[in-house]
Write a structure and sequence with these properties.
The protein is mostly helical. The chain has four helices and no strands. The protein has helices at residues 3-25, 31-57, 67-76, 81-84. Helix 1 (3-25) runs antiparallel to helix 2 (31-57). The longest helix is centred in the middle third of the chain and has 27 residues, at 31-57. The radius of gyration is 24 Å and the shape is rod-shaped.
Length: 88
C-alpha cells in the first residue's frame, strides 16, 4: 500500500471517529466532558499511530550481520559498497 494512501486512510478514520463521537455526545448530560474525552482519544491514538508509522518508514537500527555473512557479501557481490571505494 502506498504510504500516502495509508496516511490519508488513518487520518480520515480518526477524524470520523472524533466527529461521530462529538455528534453522539450531544445526547448526554455531560456532553462537554464526553466530547473532550472523545477528541483527546482520537488525537492521542492518531499521534501514536503516526509516530509508529514514521518510525517504520526510516528505522534507526539497521540489520546486523555476523562477520562470515559480511565476508560472503564482499566476495560474492562484486559491485557492493565495499568494492566501489578504496579503503581509507
Amino acid at each position: 500500500m502506498n504510504k500516502y494512501l495509508s496516511l490519508i486512510i488513518f487520518t480520515v478514520f480518526w477524524a470520523l471517529f472524533a466527529i461521530i463521537g462529538c455528534i453522539v455526545a450531544i445526547r448526554f448530560k455531560e456532553r462537554s466532558i464526553i466530547r473532550c474525552c472523545v477528541l483527546l482519544t482520537a488525537a492521542c491514538c492518531w499521534i501514536v499511530w503516526l509516530v509508529t508509522f514514521v518510525m517504520q518508514m526510516n528505522p534507526l537500527v539497521g540489520p546486523r550481520m555476523h562477520q562470515p555473512v559480511l565476508m560472503a557479501m564482499m566476495s560474492y557481490w562484486k559491485r557492493s559498497y565495499m568494492h566501489d571505494k578504496p579503503d581509507p
